[in-house]
Amino acid sequence: MSKENIPVFRRICRKFVYLTAPIWSDKTFLRMYFWCNLGYKLNLKSPRTFNEKLNWLKIYNKHPEYSKLVDKKEAKEYVASIVGEKYIIPTIAVYDNVEDIDFESLPKQFVLKCTHDSGGIVVCKDKTTLDKEAAIRKLKKGLNSNFVSITREYPYKNVIPRIIAEQYMEDETGELRDYKFFCFNGKVQFFKIDFCRFTNHRANYYDKQGNLLRFGEIECPPDYNHIEILPENINEMIAIAETLSKCSLFLRVDLFNVKGKIFFGELTFFPASGLGSFFPENNDEILGSYIHLQIDKQ
Description:
single chain, 298 residues, alpha+beta, six-stranded antiparallel β-sheet, 9 helices, globular
């Protein structure tokens, strides 16, 4: 939920919890932060909603190998070993620090992103017009982000903060639409497509047959009038997502499709950090029904 949609009191509480995050245990922090963002209590004993179960998984489903899957550099190697190198966007360079970036050696078009962050991304369509100072500020902020402390996403605990430069890509729309496959026990239940990301960001959800689903997110609302022509190889995309997620209770697999060629985007264990706001609201519980937890671990 966006900051503007949260009532003032909860917004104040969220700021306090955010600033004092390091002093709280995982359970206490997640319970407080969850209520501040979503307005209902986080039930870790008998979770029912999608968001509750994602936060349960943060605490009770910690596996060291997950760090490789969320590292934007290491994940490429992992995915290539599973489904093949042809699905990987070429890497131009990897930098340990912002100061290491040699803009002169980069091509006219490129993408820079932090390996451990979701927001620290710089898309450059024309290097001659790139605001380098703004790009550096954004990347520095991304390098300093800490998903472990603020959202308790432990897969990021052992990810080394770096910057990766990738080949710039766009599809026929002039942007790069994101196909996000929601996989439960290795099966795609539905997927969403993000579009108009840099103008009027929207996202529509679809079932595996490509039928538009009448639900969405408050943060990035749907456009039911938007007509999306699904790629002819959508079933191949679904198969790739299911292959990559076959050992996970839940995993979102993000892919791109450029002129009929499929490319890997990223793997996500906790969409919206387990704090996403759906409408109609009952979809939070409907989505949660797809995740089957072993509660006896508590």
